[in-house]
Amino acid sequence: MPKKRSGGGLSPTQQAAKFLGVSVLAGAVLAGIALPAVGALGLAAKGSVESFDELPANLKTPPLSQRTTILDAEGGTIATVYSRDRTVVDLKDISPYMQKAIVAIEDSRFYEHGAVDLKGVLRALNKNAQSGGVSEGASTLTQQYVKNVFVEEAGDDPTKVAQATQQTLGRKIRELKYAIQVEEELGKKKILENYLNITFFGQQAYGVEAAAQRYFSKSAKNLKVQEAALLAGIVQSPSRYDPVNDEAEATKRRNTVLQRMAEVGDISQAQAAEAKKKPLGLKVSKPKNGCITAVKGSGFFCDYVRAAFLSDPVFGKSKESRAKIWNQGGLTIKTTLDPQAQESVQQSVKDHVNKSDDVATAATVVEPGTGKILAMGQSRPYGFGKNETQINLSVDAAMGGGAGYQPGSTFKPIVAAAALEGGMPANKVYGSPYEMDYPAPVAQCDGGSWNEQGVRLTNENESEVGPYDMKEATAKSVNTYFVEMISDIGICPVTDMAKKMGVERADGGKIAQAPSIALGTQEMSPLTMANGYATFASRGMYCTPIAIESINQRVGGKSKSLEVPKSTCSRAMSEQTADTINTLLRGVVEDGTGQQAGLGAGRPSAGKTGTTDERYAAWFVGYTPNMAGAVWVGDPAHKRKMQDITIGGVWHEKVFGGQVPGPIWRDMMSGALDGREAPEFNLVDIPRGDTGDRDRDDEDNGNGDGNGNNGNNNGGLIGGLVDGGTTTGTDGGTTQPSPTFSIPEDFFQGQTNTGNGNGGRG
C-alpha cells in the first residue's frame, strides 16, 4: 500500500505517480497523447512545468560544444582550446564493444522498447510512491540523451545546470515528451551516436572520443572490450568511478559492466572472465586546454587570436553572439603564425632576458604589405606562476595587453615622414642648438595651438650643436632638430601620419596635441610599432594587422567555412617619402648605435633605437623589405629604471636601445629570415644641406660628436647615431654617452598623457 500523508490521503507526488502509472499502462505515453495538467496535481508551485500540453512541440538541440584547434601557417598545432573537450564522431568510428557496453549497463532493453521503458517506469514509480519522493529514475538512453541536451544548453551557467538536472516530476515529464519526439525522428542508431557524443565521462572529457583519448590515448574506434566496459561504467558517476583517482572502485565497476554484457549475450561468459583479469591499462593523456598549452612560447599569440575573434564583428554582431560561437567550438583556425619566425623570436628572447629579471622584453614580427603577424613572444611566460603572466606585453590593452610603453626616439621617423610628405626637402636644415625651449605657439588639429612657455629640452651631449640637416640629425637623433621640425609643420600632420600608419596609443586614447610627441612620449605597444615600421618597408603601404587566415567549423557532423577578417591596406605616404626614410634609417643598423642589431652583409636592413627618459624603456624597431619587427625591454609596471641592472645575466650601467633590444632584434630576425630571399631597398640620393660654416672636421674625420675613436667617414658621420650616439671608429672601439633628453624629474609630474612628460631619448 502506498504510504499516506499524516493528514490523510496521498501526497501530490504519490498522486502523480499513481496517475502516471495508469497513463503508462493505458499506452498514453507511447502514443504521444498529452497528459493532464501537472498543475492540477499541485506541483506547479514547485517549479515544474505547467502542462504537458504546453511544452514546445520540438526539442531544440544546440550544436555540441567541441574543442577548437589553432594552427600555425603551415598547419602545425599551436594549441587546443575548449569550454568542453569533445570531438564528435560518427557511430561507425566508435568501437562496437563501446556501443554494446553502454547499452548493456545503462539500458539493456534499448532496442526493444520505445521512448519509454514501461517496465522500468512502473518499477520506478512504485518505489518513488513508497518513498514519497523521486528516489529512482527509469530513464532510457533516449531520456538520458534528452537530459544531456538540457545540460549542454545550460552551458556553464550553474543555475541553468541545476534546473536541467533537478530531481522533479516536471523534468521527468519534459524528458518523456521529448523522448517520444526524438525516437520518432532519429531512430535508435542515431540516438546512440548522439548519446555517446554528448555524455560526460569525467576528467574534463565529453563524448566517447575525448574519453578514449584521455584514458587510453587512442581513438574510440580502437577500444577493446575491457576498455569500453571501463568507459561505460564511468557514466553513472564520473567522480565515484574515476579510474585515475580510484583504480579499485573503477575496476569493480568495469567488471560489473563486463558481467552485464555477458548476461545480455553481447560477449560470452568466458570472454567476460578473461577481460576481468586484465589490468585497467590506462595510458592517460593530461587535459590540454587553453593557450597555456601553446607550443614554442606562442601562448600570447594564441590569446591574441581569441581576442581577435571575440572583438571582430565579422564573427557576430554582438559580443555575446561571438562568445557563443567561440564556446561552442568545433573550429579549426589557421593563423598567420610562422613557425620558423616564432621559434627564432622565442629563442632570442630566452637567450637575452631571463624570466626572473627585474625587467621584461616583448617582441613582435609582421610581414610588410600583408599585415600578417608572423611571431609574438616575451620573456615572462604565459601562465599563473611566479614570473609568469597572462598580460600580452606586445599588444594594446583592448587585445589583452597593458598600457603600453613610451617608444622614445623610434617615433622620430614618423615626424620626418610627415614633414617629407608635406613637401619638406630631405636636406632641410634647422639651427638645432644643444639646449632650447619648446617653440610656441605650435599649430594643433583643432585650429588651436600649443602655447606653453619655458618648457626646456636638451640634446644628448653639449657637443651636439647645429645647424644640422635631416640626414645628420637622424643619424645622431638630435632632439632639438625634431622638435623644431614638428613646431614648423605643426602637430596635426604628425598625428595624421601616425594614424595612417596605424600608430596609436596602447590604451586607446588619442595622441596628445603637444610637440613633445616628437620624442616618443605616448605609450605604444610593440605590435603597433612593428606594423607601423612595416609601412616604411612596404614603400608607404599600411596594412592592418591580422592573425587569422581561415576558419572551418564543424557542426552536426558537417564542416563549413567561416568568413574571416581581411587586412585592409591603404597608402600612408608616397613611395618617395618611404624610400627617403628607408635611406635615412638604413645606416643605423650598419654603422651606428644600432650596429649590434645589424644583420650582416647580404641582408639589407634599417631601423631605429629608442630609450626613454629615466630609462624605463628601451627599444629597437627595424625591418627588411620583407619582415618588420619591434623589441621592447623594460619594466611593465614602469617602476624599475634600467640603470645599474643585470639583464640576462649581463650587468649594465645604463641600458640603451642598441645595447639590449638591438641584439635581441638581430638574433630573432636572423633566424626568422634564414633561407629566405634578401631583397634590396629602393634607396634615394639625399644631398647634404647647407649648414653654413659650422666646423664638421670631427664628423668628416670619423670623430662623430667627439665620443668616437679616430674612425673613418662612416664611423663618424653615421657612427655617432641614435640612442646615445654610440660612435664606432676604425679600431672598433665604442662609447656609450649619457641620455639624450633631460628634464628635471619633478618638472612634469603626471603629465605624460598630455605629451609634456618625460620624453624619449635617442
Topology, element by element:
Elements: H1 12-25, H2 28-31, E1 68-71, E2 77-81, H3 96-106, H4 118-131, H5 141-154, H6 158-165, H7 169-186, H8 188-198, H9 208-216, H10 225-234, H11 247-263, H12 269-277, H13 299-311, H14 319-328, E3 331-335, H15 339-352, E4 360-366, E5 373-378, H16 412-421, E6 429-430, E7 435-437, E8 442-443, E9 449-450, E10 456-458, E11 468-469, H17 470-476, H18 479-489, H19 491-500, H20 526-537, E12 541-543, E13 548-555, E14 558-562, E15 569-571, H21 575-591, E16 606-612, E17 617-624, E18 627-634, E19 643-647, E20 650-654, H22 661-673, H23 697-700, H24 713-718, H25 722-725, E21 760-761
Parallel strand pairs: 1-3
Antiparallel strand pairs: 1-2, 3-13, 4-5, 4-18, 6-11, 7-10, 8-9, 12-15, 13-14, 16-17, 16-21, 17-18, 19-20
Short description:
With 762 residues, this protein is of the alpha+beta class.
Spans of at least 5 consecutive residues whose pLDDT stays below 50 are 1-54, 697-759
- Structural classification: alpha+beta
* Mean pLDDT, all residues: 81
Backbone CA Rg:
35 Å
Strand content: 5-15%
- Quantity of strands, as a count: 21
Looking at the structure, what is the overall shape? elongated
Outline the biggest β-sheet.
Answer: 6 strands, antiparallel
- The tally of helices reads 25
Helix percentage range: 25-40%
CATH architectural type of the domain at 86-277 = Orthogonal Bundle
Query: What's the N-to-C terminus distance?
Result: 94 Å
Identify the strand order in the major beta sheet. Answer: 5-4-18-17-16-21
CATH superfamily of the domain at 86-277: Biosynthetic peptidoglycan transglycosylase-like
Q: What's the CATH first level of the domain at 86-277?
A: Mainly Alpha
Might you state the CATH topology name of the domain at 86-277? Penicillin binding protein transpeptidase fold
